[in-house]
Amino acid sequence: MCELMGMSANVPTDICFSFSGLMQRGGRTGPHCDGWGVAFYEGSGVRCFHDPAPCHSSAIAQLIESYPIKSENVICHIRQANVGRVTLANTHPFTRELWGQYWTFAHNGQINDFAAGEGPFQPVGNTDSEAIFCDLLNRLRARFTQRPSQQEILDCLTGACADYARRGVCNLLLSNGEWLFSLCTTKLSWITRRAPFGPAQLRDVEMVVDFQEHTTPNDVVTVIATEPLTSNEQWNTCESGEWRLWQGGETLQQGNVLKG
Amino acid sequence: MCELMGMSANVPTDICFSFSGLMQRGGRTGPHCDGWGVAFYEGSGVRCFHDPAPCHSSAIAQLIESYPIKSENVICHIRQANVGRVTLANTHPFTRELWGQYWTFAHNGQINDFAAGEGPFQPVGNTDSEAIFCDLLNRLRARFTQRPSQQEILDCLTGACADYARRGVCNLLLSNGEWLFSLCTTKLSWITRRAPFGPAQLRDVEMVVDFQEHTTPNDVVTVIATEPLTSNEQWNTCESGEWRLWQGGETLQQGNVLKG
């Protein structure tokens, strides 16, 4: 299994603190040593960093930890390979352009014998994760050649996720730079930080940050992770099948693909 | 105008030396201070770094200069904006997936009022460069839904380039990870280094490298750049319309899109 982390915020926010905790799981406090990657949206652009080397000892990870890249939507993944070799092409997050937007995807879980449906999007590597992403985009592109409404996208997306959730383990994060979508089938937690901000203590490494020193009273920042990253805060645990559409740190819509 | 740099090699090779010279042109010895980017292929994967900040003072550029990422195909670009604002979305190189391969593109020049033809590939930013790239991929995808032969790709590619070259300034580098394609309409130079290797002196900064210490006798490494990067070597100057298909540091095919 792998570790997912996402962020949705209403102001450009860096992830240095959360990343410092997460990267310890990339070979030190966790077994996820088969590479890592992170995507930061800045306006309509996206900056991705990928490294097939273990996260905890990566020069690029050290840059991300120390160089504050501010973003409203972030997707991060550290990998423990089960399907697909340890190569750059198999390193999440994956990115494709659809309707003039960059879409980014990371996955934790496994769907056996998954092949993407027909369409213009094809996997480059050989993970089930990238095949699921291509399948999702092919479904969207087959239904809408031009960009539809957010609700139409969401209906298509949750329909596809209902299929995936019934076929295997599929915790995922997806963003088009406007919003972040999360799906939990087995394990995903989240926390929303807003005023009054206080101190937070990482679980995986000796580090405390006082968010009050780095925020303004209107900031809303949600962090989503496979397992809680801090030890002194109350994280919310998603139930199986739960999806949420995040924007500006808030849940815009939510539901459950395994119910109703 | 911008600065292009590409590399084609028959063994994974780092670009730290050439990049050290090029990055000086990003705001120090050159005016190209509107961001920069670089794409390194590793197998079928590609690692891209983008920064809308000036290259010569970028923390990410310093990482690239000091952290040897070895690749057989590299495309690098530093930007002086003429069309399109200075944003991450407008920062070259651009990447798209076609036929299960990542295609990467960087452009130097300008084609006024260029709009990409119909097809699944749409620009995210608002540069003529990204529109040209999407147009090129839409032409390839319209003609071939599955991956054709290299010769069929090349025929389609050079046909499109003949159009572009007649409409404006279009120096470009393009790769799918297997090969590197270069087109010159106004300014492009290249050098192939092979045994016996010797010392090279950068033009833009006080730095000498003795390639003999870093190579084996069978290595073949071609560097392509808008202007020669070294002062003590003989670079080849492309003529207007000249294209070359590079693989393993050698020219596989060449021609001229402005001649019969």
From TrEMBL, chains A, B:
InterPro entries given in the database record: EgtC-like, GATase_2_dom, Ntn_hydrolases_N
Source species of the chain: Halopseudomonas formosensis
EC number assigned by the record: 2.4.2.-
Name of the protein in question: Glutamine amidotransferase
GO MF annotation: an example: glycosyltransferase activity
Top-rank lineage group of the source organism: Bacteria
Keyword Heme in annotation: no
EC category name: transferase
